[in-house]
Write a structure and sequence with these properties.
By secondary structure, the chain is an alpha/beta fold. The chain contains 16 helices and 8 strands. The chain has an 8-stranded parallel barrel, surrounded by 9 helices. Strand 5, helix 9 and strand 6 form a beta-alpha-beta unit. Helix 6 crosses helix 16, helix 8 packs parallel to helix 9 and helix 9 packs parallel to helix 11. The longest helix is centred in the first third of the chain and has 26 residues.
């Protein structure tokens, strides 16, 4: 039994960051789902760009050319991403059904220019939701102050959300409040179980930004902060307001995003953060590596709950209540990646 299979057995979900058409056409995605229990995938701009620069999408561009369709790069992107999401959602639909909507998601980022105003973000999300037409689509929305109302609106529209850049318990609580409001707006229609929301924690960002402030600590910031977030996950899930919702409402599950850290650092987190009900997001290279791993983290042979922070360790709550703002850096990188993707599409289209 490999690491991915054991994670599934232990109640933790595994998602892949960076799938593209080749994963589907070569049967790799289907194999990971069936053999290793993969329960979610994400399309990102960088992976799609690299695949387009190769040959994965040549048939699509040839078909469009033969049909005499002259599309701008942005229109070509819309066409390609919708097709990718539909194909992946079809492969994951059985997982989505078997887990009663707790897994089986295919997710994407909205174009970064749609995230400048709440109204444009909502309109872009509603458009892609209608175009894809699958209930296991999951849209990534950064948990910035300007986007918090967007999360509430999309939930009330029965559009699944993965709130990203969750840096502290305060941010998690803000997302939880918006998620609750969105669900409460659905109660009259009796549909609270038809939508899901996740909170994605960028583990690499936390360590990089905060560890220098607590250099004397023996425990990484990411681990300490993850423990605090996990405590909030349990506490808010037991609140009277949450329990007043109709049966079937899905919890605001935590996603440990390991895609910006090294395999060695990810292995360190697996020693402490293997807890049922959470999700880990892995890059394709990390997924391949762990598929071959038979040496398992020590957490699987002992206590399977997250390790408690030692009493003498400094708590990061005060520092992180000030909230490290990752949004500017993340959105700036998204703009760069997205425009490079559009350039790759335009180059391929002209060829």
């Amino acid at each position: 039994m490999n690491l991915l299979q054991l994670l599934r057995q232990d109640g933790q979900s595994v998602w892949l960051n960076g799938f593209e058409r080749g994963w589907i056409s070569r049967g790799e995605l289907q194999r990971y789902i069936e053999e290793d229990g993969l329960t979610g995938v994400r399309s990102n701009f960088e992976s799609l760009k690299l695949a387009i620069q190769g040959q994965e999408y040549d048939c699509d561009f040839t078909a469009l050319a033969q049909q005499g369709m002259s599309r701008a790069a942005r229109s070509n992107y819309d066409y390609l991403i919708v097709r990718d999401l539909q194909l992946a959602a079809d492969l994951l639909k059985q997982v989505h059904s078997q887990t009663q909507g707790r897994g089986g998601y295919v997710q994407m980022d909205l174009p970064p220019d749609a995230l400048l105003q709440p109204e444009t973000a909502i309109a872009a999300a509603q458009k892609i939701w209608r175009s894809v037409g699958w209930s296991n689509l999951l849209l990534r929305i950064p948990a910035t102050q300007i986007m918090l109302p967007v999360i509430e609106q999309l939930i009330s529209d029965r559009i699944n959300v993965n709130a990203t850049l969750v840096s502290s318990p305060i941010v998690y609580e803000q997302i939880f409040a918006r998620y609750l409001k969105g669900l409460e707006r659905l109660i009259q229609r009796g549909a609270v179980g038809e939508v899901a929301c996740f909170a994605s924690v960028p583990m690499g960002h936390l360590d990089t930004a905060i560890n220098p402030l607590i250099a004397h600590s023996k425990t990484s910031c990411g681990v300490m902060q993850a423990n605090l977030l996990y405590e909030h996950y349990h506490k808010l899930g037991q609140s009277a307001r949450w329990r007043s919702l109709p049966k079937g409402a899905k919890p605001l599950r935590l996603v440990w995003d390991y895609t910006e850290i090294s395999p060695a650092s990810a292995w360190h987190y697996l020693q402490t953060l293997v807890v049922p009900g959470t999700v880990i997001m892995l890059s394709s290279s990390m997924l391949e590596m762990y598929r071959e791993v038979s040496l398992l983290p020590t957490s699987f042979t002992g206590n399977k709950r997250a390790k408690q922070i030692p009493a003498n360790e400094p708590q990061t709550k005060i520092s992180l209540d000030e909230q490290v703002d990752f949004a500017n850096e993340d959105i700036a990188r998204s703009f760069k990646d997205f425009h490079q993707l559009l350039d790759a599409i335009e180059h391929k289209r002209k060829r």
